[in-house]
Specification:
Elements lengths: L2 E6 L10 H13 L1 E6 L3 H10 L8 E5 L12 H15 L4 E4 L11 E3 L8 H7 L10 H18 L4 H6 L4 E3 L3 H11 L27 E5 L8 H15 L4 E5 L6 H13 L3 E5 L3 H9 L3 E3 L9 H8 L3 E5 L4 H5 L5 E2 L2 H13 L1 H18 L1 H18 L2
Parallel strand pairs: 1-2, 1-4, 2-3, 4-5, 5-6, 7-8, 7-10, 8-9, 10-11, 11-12
Helix pairs in contact: 8-13, 11-14
């Protein structure tokens, strides 16, 4: 039986990203001698219970690689070195190493699954946000980056993210063709295989339960980078354009910044058609998604967009930006907008043009099959069979 080391950082707030490690662990626990390395061990059991994914504590070895009480907010270079040394120690006894926290240095070739566009290479992050090239970086920032990657990390025995990506012995799995394209443009050709993450949400209620034909939904983090206020304005303008009483319901954890939360609360008080329902899971989440007809998404620089895949599986018609991973998920240019004005126009047409709405609902239903639970589990089984069979 192969010895597999799997690393993931469960110290972040819960979101769609936890589904991939949970799903991998649930399968590998039956086929491998599996060690799960975590920054914080409590996150594994909390998230497994939250998502209802069965993991047998007696079937896996759990190793916490960061000190007790570790918090990402207090992370520093010393803790990075500590983590690196712990993972390399664990990797010595592993036949196969898998990182589900982007690029991780195990001290030996491994499988690295990309789940976000900011994975520790500041130069790549700047490139993604349109600031590539030395002309867009201060002298101090360039000097600091050079010192870290060319001097400090080698002295400490830590490879830079760039060196790992460009090492053909490593296997990199971007979570969309969009991410693969950006990485190729920046790093050049690398050992790449796109692997879409899981959307394990699967409606149990029959479609005949009924939807509100005028309800638009959003599920995800309620934070500024998700452009929540812009989405509210899109719905407001679509209401004015159509004369229809469209409503907007948002589910998710509210950003802890007081000023932002207060601003959203004030907007809701002034608009009886705007509802914040908080975080929803399980049956609550299903009821929430199945109650609407359309969905809105606004983040443009996003690697994939698990919530958008869930909209499709739930039978919703999502309207998304024409940039990032989300238009790839939806697969319909007619539902992708460049400007907020475009979003208003698309939403208004969906609400008033029955033929267009029916056509897009059929397109979305076909695309949903790609992200259905059974389809994902089939892809996962095939991939993990290759990884465990091949080794690295």
């Amino acid at each position: 039986m192969k010895k597999v080391l799997l690393y993931y950082n469960f110290s972040f707030s819960f979101g769609g990203g936890e589904l991939l490690p949970l799903s991998f662990i649930s399968e590998l626990q039956h086929t491998c001698d599996l060690t799960v390395a975590l920054d914080r061990a409590d996150g594994l059991w909390q998230s497994a219970a939250l998502y209802g994914i069965g993991i047998d504590p007696s079937a896996i070895h759990v190793e916490q690689v960061m000190p007790k009480g570790y918090s990402i907010r207090r992370h520093n270079a010393i803790l990075s070195l500590h983590r690196s040394r712990m993972l390399k120690r664990l990797a010595r006894n592993a036949d196969i190493c898998i990182s589900l926290s982007n690029i991780t240095d195990f001290g030996k070739p491994a499988h690295h699954f990309i789940n976000m566009l900011a994975f520790g290479d500041d130069a790549f992050t700047a490139f993604v946000h349109g600031k590539a090239g030395s002309a867009h970086c201060g002298v101090g920032a360039r000097a600091k980056r050079f010192f870290s990657n060319a001097i400090l990390r080698p002295i400490l025995g830590m490879r830079s993210k760039r060196r790992i990506v460009c090492d053909r012995r490593e296997r990199i799995y971007p979570n969309s063709r969009y991410v693969e394209r950006l990485m190729t443009e920046f790093y050049g050709p690398f050992n790449s295989a796109v692997f879409y993450p899981p959307t394990l949400f699967e409606p149990q209620s029959p479609e005949s339960v009924g939807r509100d034909p005028l309800r638009i939904v959003y599920i995800g983090r309620i934070v500024p980078e998700k452009r929540i206020t812009a989405l509210i304005e899109v719905v407001e303008r679509a209401r004015a354009a159509t004369g229809l009483p469209l409503t907007f319901h948002l589910a998710g954890r509210l950003d802890q910044t007081p000023a932002y939360g207060e601003r959203l609360a004030a907007m809701a008080r002034e608009r009886d058609w705007l509802k914040f329902v908080g975080a929803v899971y399980g049956d609550e989440k299903e009821h929430f998604l199945m109650s609407g007809s359309f969905a809105l998404h606004a983040e443009r620089v996003e690697a994939f967009g698990i919530s958008v895949a869930e909209y499709l599986v739930a039978g919703l018609i999502p309207v998304v930006p024409d940039e990032g991973g989300t238009p790839e998920v939806v697969g319909s240019p007619a539902l992708a907008y460049h400007s907020d004005e475009d979003a208003v126009r698309i939403l208004a047409r969906l609400a008033t043009d029955g033929a267009f709405r029916d056509e897009q609902r059929r397109n979305c239903a076909e695309r949903a099959k790609v992200f259905a639970r059974e389809s994902y589990l089939g892809r996962q089984k095939e991939l993990l069979s290759r990884i465990v069979g091949d080794g690295v």
